[in-house]
């Protein structure tokens, strides 16, 4: 059985290394006892090395990811962090194309270039896609299809199963309620069809699809079982220790 993936996107939280360490240590303790879930914690870059350097104590059920990476590998790019540097300190996953970064001006073209660079470096991209709104004419499906195609433009077929696709309808990110799990299932089928047309049927079936947007410990089991996703991308609730631990345990039991 494939393990369910739970990605914790801490965003720009928490505000101190002490608190970050407290959250990470609590999650790591739970991760060491998991049987069917795998955790990927994506803290702000500044905290990453503190967690990866204690890697010998990190169980095999937890990995460390970043929330973004530079489009470039090295050079005169003030303020940027290269995926090579992230790899060097033990990062295994990088969230790319999150809607909060897209709203800061990151285009599909930029995202596609980052996806390719990150893959070449040997890190798993967690590619975020999702429509901003839903219209009655169902044009949002075309929008989503184009976003997937453009964000994966030029990616070689052999790489696709290394990528995790995080379907995050933008209107559900930071919202009170997630998407209805039965609609999530429809969207997963749609995304697999787009991937199948691009990369082939088997590759599409093997590529992990996650759901993100207002996930919490109450709705997580339904989203996984009824939504038929391979995992979850959790924002706010991933820095809320008791809730996140509850969420992890509920998914591990499925
Ligand atoms: P949320 O965020 O869980 O706080 O809605 C999800 C995300 O931004 O990935």
Task: Figure out the total of helices.
Answer: 10
**Poorly predicted runs of 5 or more residues:** none
Assembly category: single chain
Strand content of the residues, in percent? 15-25%
The radius of gyration computed from the alpha-carbon positions, rounded to a whole number of angstroms, is 17 Å
Ligand catalogue: 2-phosphoglycolic acid
For the largest beta-sheet, the strand count, sense and barrel status come to: 8 strands, parallel, barrel
Q: Structural class, judged by helices and strands?
A: alpha/beta
How far is the first residue's CA from the last residue's CA? Answer: 11 Å
- What is the N-to-C order of secondary-structure elements (H for helix, E for strand)? EHEHEHEHHEHEHHEHEH
Shape: globular
List the helices and strands and how they pair.
Blueprint: E1 4-9, H1 17-31, E2 37-42, H2 45-52, E3 62-66, H3 83-88, E4 93-96, H4 99-102, H5 108-121, E5 124-129, H6 140-151, E6 164-167, H7 181-199, H8 201-206, E7 208-212, H9 220-227, E8 231-234, H10 241-252
Parallel strand pairs: 1-2, 1-8, 2-3, 3-4, 4-5, 5-6, 6-7, 7-8
Helix pairs in contact: 1-10, 5-6, 6-7, 7-9
The structure holds 2-phosphoglycolic acid.
2-phosphoglycolic acid (PGA) binds at residues 9, 168, 173-174, 212-215, 233-237.
């Amino acid at each position: 059985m494939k393990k369910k993936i739970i990605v914790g996107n801490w965003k720009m939280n928490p505000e101190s290394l002490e608190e970050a360490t407290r959250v990470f240590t609590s999650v790591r303790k739970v991760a060491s006892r998991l049987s069917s879930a795998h955790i990927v914690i994506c803290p702000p870059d500044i905290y990453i090395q503190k967690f990866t350097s204690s890697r010998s104590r990190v169980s095999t059920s937890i990995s460390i990811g970043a929330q973004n990476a530079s489009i470039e590998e090295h050079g005169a790019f003030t303020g940027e962090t290269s995926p090579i540097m992230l790899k060097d300190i033990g990062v295994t996953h990088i969230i790319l194309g999150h809607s909060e970064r897209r709203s800061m001006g990151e285009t599909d073209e930029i995202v596609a270039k980052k996806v390719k660079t990150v893959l070449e470096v040997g890190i798993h991209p967690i590619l975020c896609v999702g429509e901003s709104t839903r219209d009655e004419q169902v044009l949002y499906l075309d929008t989503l299809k184009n976003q997937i195609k453009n964000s994966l433009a030029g990616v070689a077929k052999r790489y696709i199963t290394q990528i995790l696709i995080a379907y995050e309808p933008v209107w559900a990110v930071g919202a009170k309620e997630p998407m209805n799990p039965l609609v999530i299932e429809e969207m997963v089928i749609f995304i697999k069809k787009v991937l199948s047309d691009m990369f082939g049927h088997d590759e599409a079936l093997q590529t992990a699809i996650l759901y993100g947007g207002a996930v919490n410990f109450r709705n997580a089991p339904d989203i996984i079982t009824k939504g038929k996703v391979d995992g979850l991308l959790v924002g706010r609730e991933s820095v809320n220790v008791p809730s996140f631990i509850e969420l992890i345990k509920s998914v591990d039991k499925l």
